[in-house]
Amino acid sequence: MAPATYSASQPSPPLGVKIIYVLAAIGCVLGVVGSLILLSAAPLLGLVTLALTAAQFVTVYGLWHLRSWAWAAGLIVYGLSGLSQLLDLNLIGALVSFLVIGYLLTNRRLFR
């Protein structure tokens, strides 16, 4: 299958997806930094955090291109991320994750 490219007939991502993309880019950078710090203190937790960050990166790529698989992946990845952030008492990160889930649930039609 050929890689997706934007054309005149293919719509650009809606504003909500663009906002998710920017927030996720920031989250991925912070996730990688946090994972590297955790690797020295708690290697298993650092690897789990790094894997979740990588899954988030792949999911956001799919959301940007409005892929149907990215909708389900987004619910899973951001659900796990939100729960993880709640356990870490990172309330802002958890709020962002749950807002992304809310956006995905209310805009399912974009990812068919």
Automatic annotation (TrEMBL):
Domain of life: Archaea
Keywords, alphabetical: Membrane, Transmembrane, Transmembrane helix
Transmembrane parts of this sequence: 19-39, 44-66, 86-106
Protein name per the record: Uncharacterized protein
Annotated source species: Halomicrobium zhouii
Organism taxonomic ancestry: Archaea, Methanobacteriati, Methanobacteriota, Stenosarchaea group, Halobacteria
